Amino acid sequence: MMSSNQRESQRLFEYFAIIGLSPDGGLEPDRLQGDVVVVPPLERSYKARVLGHYPDHAPTSLPFDHHAVQMLCLPRGLQFRTQKHFLEPRFHPFLVTKEDGSRAHGFAYVFYEEVNSQQICTAMHTLQSVYLTEMSSSHAKASSGATPNSRDTRSLPRQFRLSAPKSPAALHFYDITKDQLYVTKCIALVGQHPYVYAARKFLKGLYRFFIQCESSGVSLESHVYNLLYEVPAPPPGRCVVFSCVGKTHICHRPTSHELPLFEYSLREFCSCLGVESVVQLLTCVLLENQVILVSSDYNKLMLVAESICTLVFPFVWQHVYVPILPASLHHFLDAPVPFIMGLQCSHDSRDTIQIPNEANLCLVDVDEGTVEVPEDLPVFPHRSDFIQELTQLLIKWEVPTGKLDRNLNEHHSQYKYRRRRKYSWSHDSDSGVSSTEGSMSGSHSSITSLPPSTATSTSPLQGPPNSTRSHHLDPFHFSPHLKEITAIAKKAGVYDSEEGDRMKKERDSEMMEELKFNNAVREVFLNRFVHMFCAYDHFVIQPNCQETDMEQWLSCRESVQNFDKATFLSDQPELHLPFLSRFIESQMFTTLVDHKILSNWGKQDSNLRIFDVRIRLLRDRYDDSLVRTPSYETCTTIRETEQILEKRLAHTDYRAPAPQPMDPQAESCTQFNPGHFPLLDRIALNKEPHKSKKRSSHAWRRRERQERHLEHTGLSGDQRDRVMHEAKSKLQPKLADMSPAHMAQTNWKFVEQLLKECKTRTKRMLVEKMGSEAVELGHGEGSLVGVEENTLIASLCDLLERVWAHGLQSKQGKSALWSHLLNFQELEECNDSSKPVNPNFLSPDLSTMALETESAPASPTKSPSNTNSLRKKSLQERWPSDRSIDRRSRPSDPGIPTLRPLPISITFDMRNVLAMTEIKTHIGYARAWVRLSLEKKVLSKHLTTLLGDSELLRSLYKRYAFLRCDDEKEQFLSYLLSLNAVDYFCFTSTYTSTIVPYRVVIFPSRKLSGASTSANAWVSLGGTLGQTSNIPVPRSQVELVFQHKNLGLLTTLRIGHDNTGMSPKWMVEHVLVRNEVTGHTWKFPCGRWLGRGIDDGSLERILVGELVPSHVTSDDLVESCRTPPRCRSPNVPGPRRSDLRLTVPDIQQHLGDSVNSLVKYFYKPEKERGSLTLLLCGDFGLVCCLEQVFSYGFKSTRFFGKNLYLWDYFERVQQHFEVVVREEMEREQLTGIARDRDHGLGSMAEFVSLVARINASSSHLGKDDKFQLFVCLAARSHLLPRILLPLQRSPITSHMYDESSFLRDPQLVRDLINVLSALNEFEIILESSLTRGID
């Protein structure tokens, strides 16, 4: 990626650099790498230097960054080793990212060379002695009280003693008398193009050319000069062939209509991680999670990072991207932004990695092939089909689908080191180093002592010698000795040069196979995105290009909506919504939409151009009006794009000249100090070559093509550069140090950005929530109900944390918002305790709080560290009952129940949050407090109060902080105030296991005969998350408070008594239940008697509740509860059945509507269904409508005796059916012939059993409640449509019903059966509160 002012380079590479130990300096520890005292000197890091880079300045505006190149070539600094270690050269790419977003591609080849400086060797020996002395002294102190071992009196640590010859620590010991010291050195290439194959081949060949010390007319400078100046970068659609240190190499470049250039091995990438891990990592990157890559190999870090970034094409990662994070920059992991960072560490040290935030983190262990993802990560669309397609592709290309122990660096084992001394490992020495371990490791440091095959096979770190598709090297170039043998063999006719040509063709074929495999994998991933977003342009909100130019749109693009997200998501499959709803909020998708809009003014993005072409091809295959492909479609473009690649590489468009000898004075550099890579001739490598007419003509044609392209887009070069620079500067975070002026400007931009983000998020939350409420009211179709609410609220919590963390004087905890709240709470308690409070002027709960403060210990202040002590408060202290209030504040009539409003204060909600034992962190407390305030619709009010303390703000925040910008703060609070327009249950639905206090207020009848009861009353609550047991109601009381695990949204309430005492009969009009944490109040209408000998003789009622709107005040609610309800329980409209004047069509219409509501309930997604209990037992629910059906024409009134109920009819039918079933069983036993099933004997038996179970287990229920229970259970077992015909044929029906009733009209019965049969295909699951005692 190039900067805005950076023209595309015509060179393949821009710089050649040498990094290593400065010959003029000594051993300078790299303090940024960590503590250097606790590790041996050979394991420490030392400062490296850029010894030289060529040329001094490139003709393009790509300056050479000394610091970045030095850190990324040797991320752990200089490393010293001895001949006992594994000294194998390693190659790894790297990226240098500038502040403007431009990137330079670098390629490093790291090797070891001997240290001949006596000063360095002596310094290393001195450090080793100091380290051993410190280890000995610490060992002696640790064992001072122990009995000394007579057989071992050495003072060295155990790992360095002769008694432990095979200890790995012996490898880290340096003996100046016997060991040869080696130090890392690096040669590197830097350019603008990611030509990985060319860089690896050149650096590897140049190093081989150096160590072989061949006598040739072409020097190191000649090869470097040829690559930098005489090998051009191929233009799009062309390929270039050049000499790569004695070997030819071909470089190509795709056209603007093909996938961008990519030369990393996706074969290696898939083998390291496996298909499933790749898809998991892809999901995390697309959702912009924080991604940390861990590996012991820098090459693998770059491989995984670059591979996953190219597989998200056409999208581009827009956040922090550091594939190789130097050890000195590990503090960047604390960045609160999405990032992809790579950490190099060994397998043993991975447990010591300090990860600041694991909630949103994806951790990839590349060496182990494992991916740890966040818990709430949604599933990638068509995940199983996608994995299957990728697996089949890997099988076709013979790639292992699991982790493969293979590394590209493991194939560079031919570069060994010559030993200058003869080492004695056959006897013990004072150093304590064993001979066995050293001899084995030492065998890898020489290429002359062993044949290549032997050296390779004995290496413990080598890959399998016969690994397929490995990067083979010519075995006859291992050493000068083998070169001489090869020459003699050729003269004797023993060696056939065709074998070398064959190996060369195999290498070229291998590169072709890698490119073709990369193309196949990338096409599969692109095909998936094409199908997922094939209609995305239908939802892009395009501006009016005639009235708005590009500059105006860019200035206001953050304040306008550019994509119709709601409509787009409404057209997607339900299973894909969790992923897509988060992905379309990402910066990657937003950038793609921005590029789509910019294309209206001729600014065509290359990625978008390719993406749109593929979408058009897909639409041509189906239909231009296609919105979504019906099923999973595999990729069909692999072969077509593969042929384009083969055709391009089969024809050479340009062949670069071979390296030519240079100045003879420069030729002597390769002979100077053999074994040490020299500094090159700076003067020779800074001379620009004379451009020939051919090259000038080529450059002229290139400029002509660029001018035609700019003319086609309608933009000038400066305008294009300015637009790109502005976009990249906004997207790329700046991590470098800034001046105070720049810091102030950045902070001001941050304040504006936070305000815009708050506006966007609150607006989105309002639109989504209001849309779902409109669906519930019947004003539209549901599309997003319950899908994004939790995600949006979580993002709001994150936004609040970032707002409160901006401009802090000092960080007090992990949550800046909670720290502020704790400080506010401490000040509030101090102020309350410093002055007397008259409780008569306070509401009951506030007066109780004041009394608690007065009765507190002598030190009333509470530090943030002691917040857990609030949990120890009793229930009566935190949620006081009205009985604890001063009698003077109560109404004059003690028999009238009341419901005092809850206090609205920050500290009250904080106490409720602190009482939640399942929360352990400050971040958790802050999120719970935000969710609670949002559900209570007091978030804006609380934050206004919190920010109203200006003295506290000044003590906690700096002047430039967001919270101290008055105008922006007011707008911020106004945005949050708008959230009060909708209802949220984000606290209730999230914290399902917390303990919640509930207040129950019973409103008996105002009639004296039913106002009170002498019996022992009880209540039981049921909700969406559970139910309670029977909770006793204190005698002569109509109010109680109890604690229970969160019940969710309340649905049912059971109320009853034991019918004891002188006057047990009790008339209950309403029951109110309030959640004392959230303040939600439910109203349960009753309007029925409890007691034997009155009404239907019920001792227990099942009530169905409704949530009271938040705008209804407590006084209005209490006043409405003192009057009889409009609907009694069970919910039949009107006080008496005899008053109903419903016709047959009306009853049929009501029943049809109730059944349709149930059918719609089951066809809705599970998150949108609501309460099934309300549809069954609520107003005009199934129970209510069937009671109308059975009551029509029912002879309930009798002149003598009590009136009959429907349950009386059911009991008589049960007795009749029981006789019929018994007689049929006896007849069948006698005759052995079973009667036809059309007679409904099975349904009769099931009816008899169900009625008996209800009577046996629900003896306290009234007859109407038993009927309600029967309808619910019969609907669950699908008995309702099957029992109607047996009921019609029963003589009990003709005796108890008029001729005009439903049950005596065959046509009406058939209609009922048809309507109720619609419920047979659904599985009805009843709440346990309805079926308690039955199931």
Automatic annotation (TrEMBL):
Signal peptide bounds: none
Residue ranges with Low complexity bias: 431-460
Residues in UDENN domain copies: 32-603
Stretches the record annotates as Disordered: 426-475, 687-722, 852-898
Repeat listed as a keyword: yes
Record field: compositional bias (Basic and acidic residues): 704-722, 874-891
SUPFAM superfamilies linked: Lipase/lipooxygenase domain (PLAT/LH2 domain) (SSF49723), RUN domain-like (SSF140741)
Name of protein: DENN domain-containing protein 5B
GO cellular component: membrane
Principal subcellular localisation of the protein: membrane
Start-end of Polar residues biased regions: 856-869
Residue ranges occupied by any PLAT domain in the UniProt entry: 996-1104
Compositionally biased residues, Basic residues: 690-703
GO MF assignments: guanyl-nucleotide exchange factor activity; small GTPase binding
Cell location: Membrane
Family the UniProt entry places it in: Belongs to the RAB6IP1 family.
Keyword terms of this UniProt record: Membrane, Repeat
One Pfam family linked to the record: uDENN
Keyword Repeat: yes
Domain RUN: 787-992, 1173-1331
